[in-house]
């Protein structure tokens, strides 16, 4: 009997681990190479990329995990997760009083599931370890890759803390140190799932005329931790994503599992640099922009202390002009598209990449014998043509949502439209009319279709309000939607 083809996966995050599991379940000889420690046994301190804020798992990711075909895998991942069904907006009214505005996520009662970010990787890795045809290698850096000869070379690394005592946290994260121990690996098919700064993508770009773009948001992300109350309880409603919008900045937080909330502030880069140089002014700025946090949740001193201690991370979008090379390489997840976090769809889109590539293109080509070529000629190119417009649309919608979270959620007109969309979705489902957020998070339509339907809904709404008797129509519409908001939120 012929030996199965070898599939090498570079990157052991959720997308890489899931793609390796999909390949192993189809009978291929799978080898996964990951730069970091084994997430099940390695030290979390040796994994500097793990963000503080928990993951919000939505329907696209849930479906991709469920359809890996491992009994109980999804249940283990979702075990003890917390449902998030509402976005709570914290702002001020026209008199300067603090105002809290709930905005329900799912018109049909849907919710997100918040869970520790590393839980997906851990459980998918454990499932992969149970596959007899899968091998996992950790602390391995891809140093060269001959795509035509189909040979990849990896170098072993060790993680060392290079900071001196007293240095800031951003300088103290562990760094990989090369050991000069290299391994060359032949492959029949290579999956690049090695993140935003993908090495596989860089080797692809040396071999093909591949368009590539990256765009930085003129803002930085800074983590905050809002501690539990003295009795260990949550200080705010634990089924909400809490948002404090401002003109040029925003704070978002989700509940963790110990009574605390994990938060992120996104703020104009120039302002961040100013307050780093003038920390005595930061607490006053923070309190003015984000009402109700000081002193109810954090003291002014604690806010300033966390701001100075935590690293400031840039936010960028990445787009690629192709998602593979010939019929031997494919890019999945952040290696092929990276987006800002405002729709929390980066990982969900990557997990969906895995399902679509395997089910709709590789399996769809009738490839069932693991001893035969992993992909038929044209499979990777067909996937690239199909998926590129969708991931580019999602990258754009994620960036646009930054404006929505800062400005739109405070706009009566925008909130009225959202309530109208949700009301029609709930009570007249035959219209196929719903919110943009619900289409992205709780549906499985292509992102290009989502964008087209949202544009159509906006156009129809504008025409209704601008038609004959526009003012009266607008007043009547607003009155009906105000009633709808009461009914809907009940």
Automatic annotation (TrEMBL):
<dbReference type="Pfam" id="PF01494">
    <property type="entry name" value="FAD_binding_3"/>
</dbReference>
<keyword id="KW-0274">FAD</keyword>
<keyword id="KW-0285">Flavoprotein</keyword>
<feature type="domain" description="FAD-binding">
    <location>
        <begin position="6"/>
        <end position="355"/>
    </location>
</feature>
<dbReference type="GO" id="GO:0004502">
    <property type="term" value="F:kynurenine 3-monooxygenase activity"/>
</dbReference>
<dbReference type="InterPro" id="IPR002938">
    <property type="entry name" value="FAD-bd"/>
</dbReference>
<dbReference type="GO" id="GO:0070189">
    <property type="term" value="P:kynurenine metabolic process"/>
</dbReference>
<dbReference type="GO" id="GO:0005741">
    <property type="term" value="C:mitochondrial outer membrane"/>
</dbReference>
<dbReference type="GO" id="GO:0071949">
    <property type="term" value="F:FAD binding"/>
</dbReference>
<keyword id="KW-0560">Oxidoreductase</keyword>
<keyword id="KW-0521">NADP</keyword>
<dbReference type="InterPro" id="IPR036188">
    <property type="entry name" value="FAD/NAD-bd_sf"/>
</dbReference>
<keyword id="KW-0503">Monooxygenase</keyword>
<protein>
    <submittedName>
        <fullName>Kynurenine 3-monooxygenase</fullName>
    </submittedName>
</protein>
């Amino acid at each position: 009997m012929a030996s199965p083809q070898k599939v090498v996966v570079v990157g052991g995050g959720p997308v890489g681990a899931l793609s390796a599991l999909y390949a192993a379940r189809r009978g291929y000889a799978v080898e996964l190479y990951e730069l970091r420690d084994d997430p099940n046994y390695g030290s979390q301190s040796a994994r500097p990329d793990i963000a503080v804020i928990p993951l919000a798992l939505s329907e696209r990711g849930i479906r991709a995990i469920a359809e890996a075909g491992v009994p109980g895998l999804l249940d283990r991942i979702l075990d003890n997760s917390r449902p998030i069904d509402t976005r709570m907006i914290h702002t001020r009214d026209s008199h300067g009083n603090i105002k809290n505005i709930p905005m329900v996520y799912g018109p049909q009662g849907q919710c997100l599931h918040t869970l520790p970010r590393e839980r997906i990787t851990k459980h998918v890795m454990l499932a992969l370890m149970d596959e007899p045809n899968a091998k996992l290698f950790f602390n391995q850096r891809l140093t060269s890759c001959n795509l035509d000869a189909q040979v990849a070379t990896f170098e072993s690394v060790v993680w060392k803390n290079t900071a001196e005592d007293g240095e800031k946290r951003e300088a103290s994260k562990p760094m990989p140190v090369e050991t000069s121990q290299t391994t060359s690996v032949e492959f029949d098919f290579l999956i690049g799932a090695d993140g935003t700064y993908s090495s596989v993508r860089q080797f692809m770009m040396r071999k093909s005329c591949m368009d590539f773009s990256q765009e930085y948001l003129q803002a930085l992300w800074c983590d905050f931790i809002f501690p539990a109350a003295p009795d260990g309880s949550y200080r705010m409603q634990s089924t909400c994503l809490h948002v404090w919008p401002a003109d040029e900045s925003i704070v978002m937080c989700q509940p963790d599992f110990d009574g605390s909330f994990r938060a992120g502030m996104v703020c104009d880069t120039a302002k961040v640099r100013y307050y780093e140089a003038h920390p005595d002014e930061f607490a006053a700025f923070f309190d003015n922009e984000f009402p109700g946090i000081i002193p109810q949740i954090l003291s002014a001193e604690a806010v300033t202390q966390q701001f100075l201690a935590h690293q400031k991370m840039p936010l960028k979008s990445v787009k690629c002009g192709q998602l593979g090379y010939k019929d031997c390489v494919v890019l999945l997840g952040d290696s092929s598209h990276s987006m800002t976090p405002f729709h929390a769809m980066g990982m969900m889109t990557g997990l969906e990449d895995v399902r679509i590539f395997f089910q709709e293109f590789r399996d769809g080509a009738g490839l069932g014998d693991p001893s035969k070529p992993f992909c038929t000629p044209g499979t990777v190119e067909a996937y690239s043509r199909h998926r590129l417009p969708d991931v580019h649309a999602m990258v754009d919608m994620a960036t646009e949502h930054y404006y929505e979270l800062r400005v739109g959620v405070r706009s009566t007109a925008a909130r009225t439209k959202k309530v109208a969309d949700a009301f029609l979705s709930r009570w007249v489902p035959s219209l196929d009319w719903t919110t943009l957020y619900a289409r992205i998070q709780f549906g499985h339509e292509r992102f290009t279709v989502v964008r087209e339907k949202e544009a159509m809904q906006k156009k129809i709404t504008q025409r209704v309000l601008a038609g004959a008797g526009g003012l009266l129509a607008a007043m009547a519409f607003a009155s009906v939607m105000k009633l709808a908001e009461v009914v809907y939120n009940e």
